[in-house]
Automatic annotation (TrEMBL):
Family statement: Belongs to the ETF beta-subunit/FixA family.
GO molecular function: electron transfer activity
GO annotation, cellular component aspect: mitochondrial matrix
SMART domains: ETF (SM00893)
Pfam families: ETF
Superkingdom of this protein's organism: Eukaryota
Subcellular location: Mitochondrion matrix
The species this protein was found in: Drechslerella stenobrocha 248
Keyword terms: Electron transport, Mitochondrion, Transport
PANTHER family linked: ELECTRON TRANSFER FLAVOPROTEIN BETA-SUBUNIT (PTHR21294), ELECTRON TRANSFER FLAVOPROTEIN SUBUNIT BETA (PTHR21294:SF8)
Quaternary structure, from the entry: Heterodimer of an alpha and a beta subunit.
Domain Electron transfer flavoprotein alpha/beta-subunit N-terminal: residue ranges: 26-220
Name under which the protein is recorded: Probable electron transfer flavoprotein subunit beta
Length: 257
C-alpha cells in the first residue's frame, strides 16, 4: 500500500473553560484579552491522526499536516498541533480585524489546500465551539466530491478502507468508505494527549508555511450579517413541592398545564 497523507484543519477559538461575554456594541462575543486555545473538536482530530499513524505499520502514514485559517496568533495553535504529533503546519493568515469567515469560505480555502497538498484523508472537528455552524466538513466533502463520515466516535483504517462508528439517537451507526475521505470528529472519539515539554520544544523547529488570504480564489465577503448578539436570559431558580398534587398545582400556576 502506498504511503498516506492526512490533513487536519485546526481553529483558534476562545478556550472552552472561558465564559464568553457579549461586547458592548452587541455585535459579537468579546475576544480582546480573552484566553484562546485549539478548538476541542480539532484537538481530538489531531490526536486521532497521530493514533492512526501509531496503529499502522511503519511509514504507512508518511505525513500529517495541520492547517489553520486565522490571525497571526493561530501560529500558536499550529505549534500545539505539531507538539501533539503533526509533522508540519500551514497557516493561512487572516487579518485580526477581519470578520469571521463563514463555513463556505473556509471550505473553499481548504479545497485549494487539498488540491495542493494531495492528502488521502481529512480529519476535522465536526464543529467549532465559537460559531457552532457544524457545516465545513460536509461542504468540503461536497466541493471535493469525496465521501464523508460525520461525528465519528471510532475510526479504523485498513488499507484504503476506513470504517467509522457514529453515535446516533437510536444507538450506533457504522459506515465504511474508501479513501479519499473526509471524517469529522465527535467528542467521544478519543481523549487528546498532553503535549510534553520535549515535544513542545521539538515543535518549535518544525516548519510552518505562511500564506495570505489573497493567495486563494475566495472573496472575503460574508453572506450572513449579524444583527445583534445578546446574553441568554438568566435562568430562574428552582423550587420544591411536597407531593404530586402540589406539582400539578404549581405547573398550572406557571401555565404549563
Amino acid at each position: 500500500m502506498a504511503s498516506l497523507r492526512i490533513l487536519v484543519p485546526v481553529k483558534r477559538a476562545i478556550d472552552y473553560a472561558v465564559r464568553p461575554r457579549v461586547n458592548k456594541a452587541q455585535t459579537a462575543v468579546e475576544v480582546a484579552g480573552v484566553r484562546h486555545s485549539m478548538n476541542p473538536f480539532d484537538e481530538i482530530s489531531v490526536e486521532e491522526a497521530v493514533r492512526l499513524r501509531e496503529g499502522t505499520p511503519a511509514k504507512t502514514i508518511e505525513d500529517i499536516v495541520a492547517v489553520s485559517i486565522g490571525p497571526a496568533k493561530a501560529t500558536e495553535t499550529l505549534r500545539t498541533a505539531m507538539a501533539i504529533g503533526c509533522d508540519r503546519g500551514l497557516h493561512v493568515e487572516v487579518p485580526e480585524a477581519a470578520e469571521m469567515l463563514e463555513p463556505l469560505q473556509v471550505a473553499k480555502i481548504l479545497k485549494e489546500v487539498v488540491d495542493r497538498e494531495k492528502p488521502d484523508l481529512i480529519i476535522m472537528g465536526k464543529q467549532s465551539i465559537d460559531d457552532d455552524f457544524s457545516q465545513t466538513g460536509q461542504i468540503l466533502a461536497g466541493l471535493l466530491g469525496w465521501g464523508q463520515a460525520y461525528g465519528a466516535s471510532e475510526v479504523k483504517l485498513e488499507g484504503d478502507t476506513v470504517t467509522v462508528r457514529r453515535e446516533v439517537d437510536g444507538g450506533t451507526d457504522v459506515v465504511k468508505g474508501k479513501l479519499p475521505l473526509v471524517i469529522t470528529s465527535d467528542l467521544r472519539l478519543n481523549i487528546p494527549r498532553f503535549a510534553t515539554l520535549p515535544n513542545i520544544m521539538k515543535a518549535k523547529k518544525k516548519k510552518i508555511e505562511k500564506m495570505k488570504l489573497e493567495d486563494f480564489q475566495v472573496r472575503a465577503e460574508n453572506r450572513l450579517k449579524t444583527l445583534k448578539v445578546t446574553e441568554p436570559p438568566v435562568r430562574q431558580g428552582g423550587g420544591t413541592v411536597e407531593n404530586v398534587d402540589g406539582l400539578i398545582s404549581r405547573l398550572k400556576e406557571l401555565g404549563a398545564l
